[in-house]
């Protein structure tokens, strides 16, 4: 072998970030777990973990006097379409005792539901929830340019000049914003319906855009998130699974490869998280709710 020829050294598997694996297993949020790792409260194979540590299949994780083994997760990630009702909040808990969407979701073992974006308490409609943390983070990031479509009921007429201004853009307290598309959708009496599209998910952005034109939204419903449409027969407060094929279409739209498997944590020893989950014979519905040709309005 000449000196100029490259040496093919075996590649090692770097594993996945520790806080990501722990979060996907339902042990807390990534940000919160990062603080626990920095504080020296997590161990990998009996050694203190550091922020930036990675873990792979076969490693032993110790946290809060409990132990887990890193294993391959054969079950594919799960994603739900939920039809949020008025008055529900998207937080995991509420000090005021209001109903949260998470109270209505099916229980998981070694995973946690992650909401892809939020809806405020007075907004209804499509909410995506998934166990795929990587996909959720990517879909919510502004760089992904995934659009959201809302149906808005407005009291009183809206002029063409106001619509053009909202499409052109206005200055809000947290920066410029605009609707990438606005379509009139009929009216009844003094109530007028519009379908609007935004490319971001800032807090109450749709309502604040209309308010910039002295227009008040009396009803707001999200009907589409990227390629996912709200099923017309899905009642409020109810959810439905999407297929693995549709899940991978969402990953593709977010610029991610299809995921065949991932790694997670299997609890060891005798503690509450080590209990074997009850088996269920329920089959996932095979209806399609994701369109590869979802409109992308700019």
Explain how this protein is built:
The chain has 298 residues and is α+β, with helices and mostly antiparallel strands. The chain folds into 2 domains: 16-74 and 261-274, Structural Genomics Hypothetical 15.5 Kd Protein In mrcA-pckA Intergenic Region, Chain A, CATH 3.10.290; 79-229, Pseudouridine synthase (2-Layer Sandwich). Helices cover 17% and strands 30% of the residues. It contains 6 helices and 18 strands. It has helices spanning 18-24, 30-38, 133-140, 160-168, 205-211, 244-253; strands spanning 16-17, 42-44, 47-48, 54-55, 60-63, 66-73, 79-84, 114-116, 123-130, 148-155, 170-172, 175-177, 181-188, 191-198, 217-225, 228-229, 239-241, 262-268. The strands form 4 sheets. Strands 7, 8, 9, 10, 13, 14, 15, 16 and 17 form a 9-stranded mixed sheet that branches. The chain has a 5-stranded antiparallel sheet with strand order 3-2-5-6-18, with helices on one face. A two-stranded antiparallel ribbon has the order 1-4. A hairpin with a 2-residue loop joins β13 (181-188) and β14 (191-198). α1 crosses α2 (30-38). The chain is elongated, with a radius of gyration of 23 Å. Residues 1-12 and 273-285 have low confidence and may be disordered.
């Amino acid at each position: 072998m000449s000196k100029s020829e490259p040496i093919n050294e075996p590649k090692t598997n770097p594993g996945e970030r520790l806080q990501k694996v722990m979060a996907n297993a339902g042990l807390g949020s990534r940000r919160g777990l990062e603080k626990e790792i920095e504080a020296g409260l997590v161990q990998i194979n009996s050694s203190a973990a550091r922020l930036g540590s990675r873990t792979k299949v076969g490693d032993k994780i110790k946290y809060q006097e409990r132990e887990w083994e890193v294993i391959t997760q054969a079950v594919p990630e799960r994603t739900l379409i939920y039809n949020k009702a008025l008055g529900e909040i998207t937080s995991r808990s509420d000090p005021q005792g209001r109903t949260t969407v998470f109270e209505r979701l099916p229980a998981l073992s070694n995973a946690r539901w992650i909401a892809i974006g939020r809806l405020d308490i007075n907004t209804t409609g499509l909410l995506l929830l998934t166990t795929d943390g990587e996909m959720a983070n990517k879909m919510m990031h502004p760089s992904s340019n995934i659009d959201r479509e809302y149906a808005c009921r407005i009291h009183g007429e809206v002029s063409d000049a106001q619509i053009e201004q909202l499409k052109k853009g206005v200055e809000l307290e947290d920066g410029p914003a605009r609707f990438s598309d606005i379509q009139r959708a009929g009216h009844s009496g003094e109530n007028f319906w519009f379908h609007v599209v935004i490319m971001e998910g800032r807090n109450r952005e749709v309502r604040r855009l209309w308010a910039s034109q002295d227009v008040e939204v009396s009803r707001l419903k999200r009907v589409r998130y990227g390629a996912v449409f709200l099923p017309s027969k899905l009642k409020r407060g109810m959810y439905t699974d999407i297929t693995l094929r549709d899940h991978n279409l969402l990953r593709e739209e977010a610029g991610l490869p299809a995921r065949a498997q991932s790694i997670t944590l299997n609890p060891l020893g005798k503690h509450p998280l080590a209990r074997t989950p009850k088996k269920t014979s329920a089959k996932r519905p095979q209806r399609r709710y994701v369109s590869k040709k979802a409109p992308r309005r700019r």
